[in-house]
Amino acid sequence: xxxxxxxxxxxxxxxxxxxxxxxxxxxxxxxxxxxxxxxxxxxxxxxxxxxxxxxxxxxxxxxxxxxxxxxxxxxxxxxxxxxxxxxxxxxxxxxxxxxxxxxxxxxxxxxxxxxxxxxxxxxxxxxxxxxxxxxxxxxxxxxxxxxxxxxxxxxxxxxxxxxxxxxxxxxxxxxxxxxxxxxxxxxxxxxxxxxxxxxxxxxxxxxxxxxxxxxxxxxxxxxxxxxxxxxxxxxxxxxxxxxxxxxxxxxxxxxxxxxxxxxxxxxxxxxxxxxxxxxxxxxxxxxxxxxxxxxxxxxxxxxxxxxxxxxxxxxxxxxxxxxxxxxxxxxxxxxxxxxxxxxxxxxxxxxxxxxxxxxxxxxxxxxxxxxxxxxxxxxxxxxxxxxxxxxxxxxxxxxxxxxxxxxxxxxxxxxxxxxxxxxxxxxxxxxxxxxxxxxxxxxxxxxxxxxxxxxxxxxxxxxxxxxxxxxxxxxxxxxxxxxxxxxxxxxxxxxxxxxxxxxxxxxxxxxxx
Length: 513
Fold this sequence. Notes:
Helices cover 33% and strands 27% of the residues. It is built from 14 helices and 20 strands.
């Protein structure tokens, strides 16, 4: 691509040319880099020259003429900014496809010229389907177009979907064709006393759910844990994976690649690390099957969940591998061995995301007074549940890890599909010498973030701030809190089952029919 094409694509909004009886308009949006415009140079449309005083530049919050731009009154056009250029409708006829030339003088780059052709009759993006725009899709005008389209197509009015309190531009990078919100009820459980290395103290827990009795159940488990000294939580491992596969003519070449990888870890770390200041390659697991070499790259990704980050890093490493191993026939960036959004046996052993262990010793008296259960009953039921989980081939011998994790994920802006992995769990209990119940759960694949993704959205950020977990430096704190919440839920449900209160509590709190 030449420089002029890059400028055209980076500054002109293709398909934005419009006209009516009063004016002709098109849009400029800056997707290149910050710039300061110091002078308007020219505008020509199909050979018609427009004076600066005839041209109006329209922003969301203001309007000005092109002639007002000067070195004493420069115009800042930051990356992501857009403006509409409007001129009076020409007296003569225009072709359906117009030649547009416009130029500005800039402080950083000298003169910039946009030279494009655009059509009035170009079908708007999404014609016949949901309206959208490649560059302005999160502007309020496009949100309203989709809402109007939705009501026309369905013949219904929508009040609650259309009701939101934040700037729709905040959702850029989180959702396409933003049309409104799906509001999930939010309850507050706790406080919960967590004794972690990063989370230490009492926390109010935001749970977004539509399941009646869930908040009450978790609160009950938290109360019992608090009265027994709280829940100890520990992050013991931190890995995020991408798992490419390389194909060869025979198994020997596949084996040899694995040996090469072991000998060249330094250069692989350099290649992967060049893509981000945050991502760090820990090691690479190698597995050979048939004539394929499966490589499982393990990274740390700071406070981000990191799936996209490690994809970019692994691509750079794979290119380095491919260039230095001519026997490779082809490769794929993902072999399905990273097990994105899927529970797996490999993660039970090797971890994905944070491996979190939550544990507590619940005093016999507390169990009896608060949860109406005996330690022996819970322990015996746990052993029976181990048999049932094994027979079923379940990925968790506990009771309902996914309940608390999902409710917290939705509340705090996590990728809810990661519950597929985080729902795996290993529960354990025993009765100690004092007759109290020791209970713990290991979550081997808890993928959470406190920065990036959905964590910066309006209500999600508030929930993270409620926990003191928003922003960089807090991801292990959040992981410890989630682990502790899961254990409180296990304790509560196990007690309800053992004391035969499970059905009655659901009937009392969970009925909405």
